[in-house]
Amino acid sequence: MKRDVSFLRERLAGGGTVTGMQCFSASPVIVEAMGTSGLDFTIIDMEHCPTGLEALAHLLRAADSANVLPLVRVPEVDRTIIGRSLDLGSAGIVIPRASPARCREALRWSRYAPQGERGACPVVRGAGYLPTDWVSHERNANASTLMVPLIEDLAAVEQCDEILGLDGVEIVFVGPFDLAVSQGLSGADYRHPMLRGQLDKVVMAARARSKHVMTTVGATIDLGYARTLLDAGVRLLSFSADIAVFIGACRRIAALPEAAA
User: For the chain, what is the domain count?
Assistant: First the structure.
């Protein structure tokens, strides 16, 4: 059963929490496992991973079959890659290195005219392969496609209110790893007062506009730390990348014989 964005909007509107994981492995099996385990969304990475469009198509099919909402982090704000990701059936786009200008451009490429300049083709998976009512598809696609800016540096934090004020931006993703690196704080997370203050700034701006913040908990599955983020007002939690979670589990397994000795 294909999951659409309505469930996410309803849960967030009711004050609920949404959980997911990034997919770096490009494995449809892992994406299916995310869905069958009860995760709500996955972010398929094309920025740091060699995932191509052909692999993306299989990952999106796997997500639909397992009832997990698929978003795609594109490598760049590019009309072709955004349009083709949506044509393949992505529920939304995650925009790296967000700025107001980059977000406006991404919104333009993700919406059909007159709201934007997305290329229109009815014979694609995202349109249901030749829909009988193209006008309805066009209207629904414009209304339902998520655009999630990824705040990764101090400039984006300072411009977060402008980003959140854009029509079509409902969620912003604060990326703590890049945010820390960009300020010479490599390895820090939201327990660092500077990063926590920046997260609080984004959450306050989102609340003022009745919008929502996503961030990364990390691969350690630290539920106590996750609770502090929920208490801070974050409502969408990404538990790092599938590969990182797997490596963490493998390291714990590898340490068992030595710990038991």
Answer: 1
